[in-house]
Amino acid sequence: MQIISSVEEMQSYVTRLRGKGQLIGLAPTMGALHEGHLSLIDMIREKSDVVIVSIFVNPTQFGPNEDYDRYPRQMEADLAACEARGADIVFMPDREDILPPDFSTYIEENEYSQGLCGISRPGHFRGVATIVAILFNVCRPDFAVFGQKDAQQAAVLQKMVKDLYFPVEILVAPIVREGDGLAKSSRNRYLEVGERTDAVRLSQALNIGKDIVAHGNLSVDRIKAEVTHHLSQSRRIRIIYVEIVDKDTMKPEREVRPGQSLLTLAVWLDQTRLIDNMIL
Length: 280
Ligand code: AMP
What we know:
Shape: globular
CATH architecture of the largest domain: 3-Layer(aba) Sandwich
Number of helices: 9
Number of strands: 9
CATH topology of the largest domain: Rossmann fold
Distance between the termini: 40 Å
Strand content: 15-25%
CATH superfamily of the largest domain: HUPs
Bound molecules: adenosine monophosphate
Number of domains: 2
Structural class: alpha/beta
Helix content: 25-40%
CATH class of the largest domain: Alpha Beta
């Protein structure tokens, strides 16, 4: 496994690979890797000759009062995990190379990014889209994989690729969960024991929504009310949003369309922001 931190070296490496006709897959991450990240490697491996995992804690996607400084960083463990899972290259650029002091160009998607996390995290998707565009230009992947865990992020990036004709195909990998249903997340390590117990309510609430649909009730209001009720049973949980949206555009649904509607939520669990979603 190659470890590359220089942008120039990465560019010349992929130029050589592309010259040999190799298909390149990219899995962008912010490190603190867990099984959810590693599943991205598996998915992209199926389509690519060379798998690149990028690790970059992107400062532009964190708000001023968010957790950029305390975001977990564990480079050695991440490199070992990538190697064990069969990544070919880990690209871990320096912050100054990606965002030099005179950096002044941003990418903004202005439809799918507007609701949901776009409301509570202003500027977040602009930061994500900008850095992903840079990673696409440097790594020139044929395929890039993102997790359904961050469904709105995947939707925004699909739209960016379509609108700007990036020559990349985006794959979306299913959510990997803990045994009790909690979606794996680098932020789960912030949870203390009691918080971890209550965190299971997120996936439980989504399953309640799914059950309502399975019983033939397609009412958005009814599902949102039941989900909200279940989350509110924990006094540690403060709801940021509970919404039912089209899974591709992130626009609110009037009525559930099974297979197309996404039940999605964000909460504060004490001081930790958690998100989860499920296709109904
Ligand atoms: P992050 O390091 O949090 O930026 O995540 C990097 C990529 O891993 C994103 O595309 C996430 O959607 C994806 N990811 C994170 N957690 C999971 C999970 N539990 N299951 C599947 N993909 C995930």
